[in-house]
Design a protein that fits this description.
The complex is a heterodimer of chains A (318) and B (318).
Chain A (H helix, E strand, L loop, with lengths): L4 E6 L4 H13 L5 E5 L10 H11 L3 E4 L7 H6 L1 H21 L4 E5 L28 H21 L2 E7 L1 E3 L12 H15 L3 E4 L5 E2 L1 E3 H14 L6 E3 L7 E2 H12 L5 E4 L14 H6 L8 H14 L7
Parallel strand pairs in A: 1-2, 1-3, 3-4, 4-5, 5-10, 6-9, 7-12
Antiparallel strand pairs in A: 8-11
Helix pairs in contact in A: 1-7, 2-4, 4-5, 6-8, 8-10
Chain B lengths: L4 E6 L4 H13 L5 E5 L10 H11 L3 E4 L6 H29 L4 E7 L26 H21 L2 E7 L2 E2 L12 H15 L3 E4 L5 E2 L2 E2 H14 L6 E3 L7 E2 H12 L5 E4 L14 H6 L8 H14 L7
Parallel strand pairs in B: 1-2, 1-3, 3-4, 4-5, 5-10, 6-9, 7-12
Antiparallel strand pairs in B: 8-11
Helix pairs in contact in B: 1-6, 2-3, 3-4, 5-7, 7-9
């Protein structure tokens, strides 16, 4: 019987935390795993003393560190300094306290937006530090990159297995559906539901041509479980569906309208910018480890997310 | 008549700090400028409260931030994590306390060793974040790079003029003359004095062919004064001698031998590696702003440094 794991999940009330919870429920709890999902209500991780008190109380052997100050385009633009300093503080507190408490493994969560803005595609894990990130959220991105720098440091100096994953665009229940600072897929879902309710046309921003890889939060959760149990490299791991599963914004929008049952007018506002045409990331490293991992079919994942949205109007973050 | 400046120099007793002091002394005190050179004895900048107490006491309007935990190759290799975290803490304390106390300008000190390991030459200011630094000192390098990231953040969010300079191959009085972890020129000076004293040959490592730009600490100090008073760009500026004044290690050794008055045997140990033949740093940005700045001739600078070394055996860091 393997040694018992006491797993602390920080930032657990977010999209990824719920995906992780869903994955555990789908799989069924394992006897050797004890899970603690915490949020800022349990401890303010910007504060060292509160972080230590949390660790003292839970005594984790493993940590999945999802907590962060996240913002969306507009908030980031004006507050890059705060995003850098606050996230740096949180990350230092969690990593250093983990080390102090002899936590065996910490898995932090980076993002593909932390990669260099000027890059050769497909992007892979080796490129993380190879140029400045996009201007709009450089504070957030550098704070995240420094997790990887510290992971390397903790390994070199103390032999710690502190690592990180890099998901592509995640979507699912409990997402942020706010149009100003949420992401593209939840934005389309929100607008489809709004259009269905108020009869206004459904507007797609830009040409709809840009292609993106998305990952369903449940699938991300399943992959997190594998990383927790089996991934023993300190260097980051991209978690994404393959490039062959890229879809265009327009294709995603059409699928969402069909799923939501919106049959009204669809307008393309081509005055809005498209952003990058392709931002393909490589999941070769993940596939070397998990050649047979099956992602939830996109259509089904969208259906489940829309059903959740419709059934949980009180919970939806708008 | 410019406003009164109260200038706090952290790390004021090191090579660069002494160079600034020498420049201030040579120029003569300027009306309206009050200088405070501090060291760790005046306040442990790793500690937030101690930092605030120092700022409370001195009430600086300007800060030249030189204080850092520096390592040298051997200490760095093993302790990258500590060097990253401690320097990050010092920098965070100094810069955010500066902001809190409404300091008008902070000039921090970076180094060309923090640049990407894989790079083209000449190096210029735009390249700092274009790739990972050399592995042996990644902790130090990233902590310094994050000063530049924060400077940008403080400017965008608060309109602060917090900036940085990039110096390398600095030499002069009060240097670290330890051959294990000091730099090449002080190493040659130390070896020449030792060879003169004990009658052994003076050994130059490698072929002596690699060419380097050296900058005298007094000249660096003079440039710091100009930066303090006139440079209002938050992006970094390289402070380096002209490419034309690069000299080979052999030429440097000859100048040292002359200055020290060593008359014994000079040996070249070609079994030792050379390092890159040229590592030219571009001072084009500096020359655009200061086309007429005259560097101290290297022969004179080396003579002055050797004279200081001979006259101050008790002060020499070995």
């Amino acid at each position: 019987m393997p040694a018992k794991k006491v797993i602390l999940v920080t930032g657990s009330s977010g999209l990824v935390g719920h995906g992780l919870r869903a994955a555990i429920e789908q799989e069924g709890r394992r006897a050797d795993e004890q899970w603690h999902f915490v949020t800022s209500k349990d401890a303010d991780l910007r504060d060292r003393a509160e972080t230590e008190a949390l660790f003292d109380s839970i005594k984790p052997t493993h940590v999945i560190h999802l907590a962060a100050l996240v913002g969306g385009l507009f908030r980031n633009l004006d507050h890059n300094l705060d995003f850098y300093r606050t996230n740096t503080q949180i990350n230092d507190n969690v990593l250093a306290t983990s080390h102090k408490n002899n936590v065996q493994k910490v898995i932090s969560c980076l993002s593909t937006c932390n990669f260099p803005n000027k890059a050769k595609y497909p992007i892979d894990e080796t490129m993380l530090h190879c140029g400045p990130p996009h201007e709009t959220n450089f504070g957030y991105s550098y704070a995240k990159r420094m997790i990887d720098v510290q992971n390397k440091g903790y390994y070199n100096q103390h032999g710690r297995l502190y690592t990180s994953v890099i998901p592509t665009s995640v979507f699912g229940p409990h997402d942020n559906f706010n149009l100003q600072d949420g992401h593209v897929l939840p934005g389309l879902i929100r607008r489809a539901f709004d259009s269905k309710a108020d009869g206004n046309p459904f507007v797609i921003w830009g040409t709809g041509s840009p292609r993106r890889q998305f990952i369903y939060s449940l699938d991300l959760g399943r992959l997190f479980l594998w990383v927790l149990r089996e991934y023993n490299e300190v260097t980051p791991l991209i978690l994404s569906a393959g490039a062959d599963r890229e879809i265009s914004i327009k294709e995603a929008a059409e699928l969402i309208c069909e799923t939501v049952g919106y049959h009204g007018e669809v307008i393309q506002d081509t005055t809005k910018s498209d952003g990058q045409f392709k931002k393909t990331v490589s999941n070769d490293k993940m596939r070397k480890y998990l050649p047979d991992f099956k992602f939830t079919p996109f259509k089904q994942a969208i259906k489940e997310t829309c059903e959740w949205y419709a059934a949980n109007s009180d919970k939806v973050r708008k | 008549m410019s406003d009164k400046k109260v200038i706090l120099v952290t790390g004021g007793t090191g090579l660069v700090g002494r160079g600034i002091r020498a420049a201030v002394e040579r120029e003569g005190p300027r009306e309206g400028e009050q200088w405070h050179f501090v060291s760790s004895q005046d306040g442990d900048l790793r500690d937030r409260d101690a930092t605030e107490a120092l700022f409370d006491k001195i009430r600086p309007t300007h800060v030249i931030h030189l204080a850092a935990l520096v390592g040298g190759l051997f200490r760095n290799l093993k302790y990258n994590l500590d060097i990253y975290r401690i320097n990050s803490q010092i920098n965070e304390n100094v810069i955010s306390t500066s902001h809190k106390y409404n300091v008008q300008k902070v000039v921090s000190c970076l180094s060309t060793c923090i640049f990407p390991d894989k790079t083209t030459y000449p190096i210029d200011e735009s390249m700092i974040h274009n790739g990972p630094p050399h592995d042996s000192a990644f902790g130090y390098s990233y902590s310094k790079r994050m000063i530049d990231v924060q400077n940008k953040g403080y400017h965008m969010q608060h309109g602060r003029t917090y900036t940085s300079v990039i110096a390398s191959n600095v030499f002069g009085p009060y240097d670290n003359f330890n051959p294990e972890n000091g730099h090449v020129l002080p190493g040659l000076i130390r070896k020449a004095f030792d060879a003169k004293a004990d009658g052994n040959p003076f050994v130059i490592w490698g072929t002596g062919s690699p060419r380097r730009q050296f900058i005298y600490s007094l000249d660096l100090g003079r440039l710091f004064l100009w930066i303090l008073r006139e440079y209002n760009d938050v992006t970094p500026i390289i402070l380096a001698a002209d490419e034309e004044s690069e000299i080979s290690i052999k030429e440097a050794a000859d100048l040292v031998v002359n200055a020290v008055g060593f008359k014994g045997e000079v040996i070249q140990d070609t079994s030792k590696p050379d390092g890159p033949l040229k590592k030219t740093t571009s001072n084009a940005k500096l020359r655009r702003l200061l086309p007429d700045f005259q560097f101290t001739p290297i022969k004179q600078a080396i003579q002055e440094t050797c004279d200081w070394y001979a006259a101050n055996p008790d002060k020499v860091r070995k």
